[in-house]
Amino acid sequence: MRRALSVPLFSVCLLSAAGACLAQGPAASPSLSDPIRSTAASLRDEAMKGTGAYEIVRSLTTEVGPRPAGSEGERKSIEWGLRTMRELGFTNVRAEAVTVPHWEPGNAEGQILAPWPQPVVLLPLGGSVGTPEGGLEGEIVEVPSVEDLEKVSPEKVRGKIVFINKRMERKKDGSGYGAAVSGRGRGAAVAGKLGAAAVLIRSIGTDNNRTPHTGAMRYEEGGPRIPAAALSNPDADMLAAQVASGKPVRFRLLLGSRHLPDAQSANVIGEIVGREKPEEIVLLGCHLDSWFPGTGAVDDAAGCAIVMEAARRIGELPQKPRRTIRVVLFANEEFGLSGARAYAEKYTADLPRHILAGESDFGSGRVWRIDTRVAPESLPVVGEIAKLLAPIGVEPGDNEAGGGADLIPMAPARVPLLGLGQDGTEYFDWHHTANDTLDKVDPKDLDQNVAAWAATAYAAAEMSGDFGRAPQPEQPGR
Amino acid sequence: MRRALSVPLFSVCLLSAAGACLAQGPAASPSLSDPIRSTAASLRDEAMKGTGAYEIVRSLTTEVGPRPAGSEGERKSIEWGLRTMRELGFTNVRAEAVTVPHWEPGNAEGQILAPWPQPVVLLPLGGSVGTPEGGLEGEIVEVPSVEDLEKVSPEKVRGKIVFINKRMERKKDGSGYGAAVSGRGRGAAVAGKLGAAAVLIRSIGTDNNRTPHTGAMRYEEGGPRIPAAALSNPDADMLAAQVASGKPVRFRLLLGSRHLPDAQSANVIGEIVGREKPEEIVLLGCHLDSWFPGTGAVDDAAGCAIVMEAARRIGELPQKPRRTIRVVLFANEEFGLSGARAYAEKYTADLPRHILAGESDFGSGRVWRIDTRVAPESLPVVGEIAKLLAPIGVEPGDNEAGGGADLIPMAPARVPLLGLGQDGTEYFDWHHTANDTLDKVDPKDLDQNVAAWAATAYAAAEMSGDFGRAPQPEQPGR
What we know:
The structure is a homodimer.
Chain A lengths: L10 H5 L2 H6 L10 H15 L4 H11 L8 H16 L3 E14 L3 E7 L3 E3 L1 E3 L11 E8 L2 H4 L4 H4 L3 E4 L10 H6 L1 H12 L4 E5 L25 E4 L1 H12 L5 E6 L2 E15 L4 E11 L9 H19 L7 E8 L7 H9 L7 E6 L7 E7 L5 H11 L5 E2 L20 E6 L4 H4 L12 H20 L16
Parallel strand pairs in A: 5-6, 6-7, 7-8, 11-12, 11-13, 13-16, 14-15
Antiparallel strand pairs in A: 1-10, 2-3, 2-9, 4-8, 5-9, 10-12, 14-16
């Protein structure tokens, strides 16, 4: 998963003409009847007793494994998605073509050459160019953050290797990520403009394992393109300790990364078709791709398992819900939201009938909070749904949900968003590393997620009225 | 560190002639005077306020790093040891030649080829031969333990790759290690005799990181020599999950390991020379070598820092203790106890005047227990020492201490042994992995270790009388 910034609620409404605000009102005042509440509670309680979600994670991680955009693993994951969706009883199962960038990590080697030679463990950042074939060498210039780097004079950096030594903080809601990740995304662009030869970052992660955290970086259009890599936290400590000696620190970096021609991928979609309003969609999303080092268990096999299993359980009720529940396994979230953009484009005309969308993309930690971004007039029914989730430890949140990175391209259509906030205390120990493997997933935690998603999605698909349209965020995503 | 088996106390005495038992009695009844108790308590309390031990670990791990037997790192560690001992004020600082085996790990690659191709993370076991240059391929045969492997018929194994899937249990005293490690030491010998092409083991470690645990293995003299590697725990899970599918599992292994001619190394020794009985020795040991993947912070820079700092603090008292405190940084503990054997041989004539020996080789976890192996008649003074340690959380233990692997070769001389048992709950998360780095060491925990060693070593070096000679263990070491 990726996260952008939180945005204030109601600002658009306060700043807009009254008519625009009225237009955000729901089509009909939404509410939950007693039978809806009872069925949702039953979905919740049955899921808490045990679900098939862990088996879905096992299957994807074991039988496919790593599946970055453009890779053979990605191709297999699409076959897996289609097969699994069909086996689980979904309708209208299909792969919808998406063009994705294709980047290969290649080999990665790093050594401190002086003052005290030490091998270090690093990974290329996603999208980095490679080094020259024999690698490159340079003196290290350490900066505390990319923001500090922007203030450094080019003479201090030219021809050197910039080391951005910013440590991510551990937080339950994962908010330490947004505070630290800018150096990963922009470090190479900023350092390149200053004439640096390469950039190293301290991994954006909360662990102290020698398993570096990769993740997307971007060059500026037409700007310099220098190699960029992440050191594991212990290796960043080592480099910092050598820099702290005051002696010049020399480093050798070799990256075999390379860009290849764009590749064909697909969003994989399956539905529980609504019995009364099949054209109205409750969208449950996740992403099928992963980064390359691990098997993508927490990012995002867990999310796919949660929403697939939640929808499957709704589909097995004695009658289908009034609206359609559409599960979308998005292609290439990690390296450019390709599937999300393709979906928003293909379904532009249908997005006004997407009455709610949510994405599970934060591992398998328990849901502890429900947030939305819905028309304010529909907040009472959100409160009713929140009450349904209280018995499994979920608190009411706010109306500023981002809903997940793959929902960002739907923002112009003001699709109402659901965010089931998970405990992310450990998530960034594993995120984008070789350590993102099946053993990090707790089956009971997955079940609780399924319980929350199943109850919520069912209520949304069955209730009278809808959530209106979402207030327009100033900056989409969270 | 390595550990052998616990052995029962007094068994030798019970089985021996009465005369042999009497001969184990102390030369004079040992006791602690009030001034000794007071000075030992002061050493303890001052150390708890903060010591230089962490700086010693930082220096060895940062300025030397990995230092396996025969490597360039080992050579640097000897220079480091001599320099650091002199800087800390030790006397008679010297390097004593030790011949060590020289084995290089080389590259290590593994892939599951079928039914579901996946790359895996593995390391060669210490001493393994390499594979043919292009690697080798074979079908996986999984067994739960090396003991089970011994019962398998050769037809089931011939030409295949044996996978020993035994999981180590987490225990405060580290006793899960002894219960699991036999597959690492003997797996290749047993599998080779059955005609296997190679052996893979689940890492002997308690973590779930993709950082495999290496460690020593041995072939039988004249027996087959097949390649042996350790999978990280998540990779062992993956392999087991594929085997559990019931489909044939094919694996490719490439190891570039190789044996080189023996190399010259050294034990590094420094002393606080005793003021009255300089020829009587209290030996404080650790080992200077490490395995190759990490910087050997917990195994065993921590131990060296603890005993060096403890002895240094005793040496800075207004007067030296009555006996000599000798700190020995043993060469090549990990791959054959080379330094320990050389020491025991060189000092055979002096071992009867080694009145106590202990080794710190279990990371930086707090000392929680004091064990000894001393003449039973001297147990009262052990009780007095234990009381000195009670305020820092140390409980009295038993008289069955092993004292540390490097003390095993002294067993024939019945040198009395001291074991300060540490909390090893996390030790086997890092042991013999790339994750054995400085960040795993807590400075306050190190200080508590220094407090315990300083108080104990001082009391032993200063007290009247001694510990007699140790009961002979049936099987040395623990």
